[in-house]
């Protein structure tokens, strides 16, 4: 599939979107596996689990999901504030780079304090990290995109395949490749953290951290090449 790559920022490319969804899937898997079955990014799941717990009369059990929801909201506010503040100033790094550094720092805090603080604190920090990624990276090749929630991606895939097959629309079939890659990468991120769990335990948070570092490096190299050219 060919796209007018010069017109597409690297952080809106399909390869970078795949990297972002692997990060998001890894963070969600980590928070779910190690911190009380709470999602850091999939807040729809937390709302459902909150409702189930409240329906069972387990208010204490539902609190951990509410904390994640509130932390996600606060994380969105912080990331949005960073976008507004640094987006108007000439800085040496781009806002996407800055958000990735911030996300990496939050995961590093969790890695260093994992055994020292209660689960709800770790979950809150992870939720803030997930919120930052969602707030900054919302476009794929100029189209709406989310690295956290796969429901819309699955809908886009189904629509693209249907239009491509039923109406013989080759453009729709080509576009369907995007959600396939996104869904596969999200599942891959979840799988990598799950497998790492058996080897590294809580240190499996290193998986999304390495992926974030890779994304930071990609943006840094691209920015440096642009300066040289």
UniProtKB/TrEMBL annotation:
- Lineage, top-rank taxon, reads Bacteria
Q: What name appears for this protein in its UniProt entry?
A: Membrane protein
Entry-linked PANTHER family: SLR0142 PROTEIN, UPF0700 TRANSMEMBRANE PROTEIN YOAK
Can you tell me where the transmembrane regions are? 64-81, 180-199, 205-221
Which positions carry the signal peptide feature in this UniProt record? none
Task: List, alphabetically, the InterPro entries matched.
Answer: DUF1275
Q: Which UniProt keywords apply?
A: Membrane, Transmembrane, Transmembrane helix
């Amino acid at each position: 599939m060919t796209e007018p790559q010069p017109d597409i920022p690297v952080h809106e490319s399909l390869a970078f979107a795949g990297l972002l969804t692997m990060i998001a899937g890894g963070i969600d898997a980590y928070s779910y596996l190690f911190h009380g079955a709470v999602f850091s990014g999939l807040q729809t799941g937390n709302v459902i689990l909150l409702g189930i717990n409240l329906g069972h009369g387990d208010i204490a059990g539902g609190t951990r999901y509410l904390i994640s929801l509130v932390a996600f909201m606060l994380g969105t506010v912080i990331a949005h504030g960073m976008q507004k503040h640094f987006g108007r100033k000439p800085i040496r790094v781009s806002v996407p780079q800055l958000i990735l550094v911030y996300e990496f720092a939050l995961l590093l805090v969790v890695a260093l304090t994992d055994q020292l603080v209660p689960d709800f604190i770790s979950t809150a920090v992870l939720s803030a990290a997930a919120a930052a990624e969602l707030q900054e990276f919302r476009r794929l090749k100029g189209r709406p995109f989310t690295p956290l929630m796969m429901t819309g991606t699955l809908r886009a895939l189904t629509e693209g395949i249907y239009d491509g097959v039923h109406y013989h629309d080759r453009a729709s079939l080509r576009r369907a490749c995007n959600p396939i890659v996104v869904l596969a990468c999200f599942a891959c991120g979840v799988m990598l953290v799950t497998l790492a769990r058996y080897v590294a335990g809580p240190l499996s948070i290193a998986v999304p951290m390495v992926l974030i570092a890779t994304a930071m490096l990609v943006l840094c190299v691209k920015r440096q090449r642009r300066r040289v050219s």
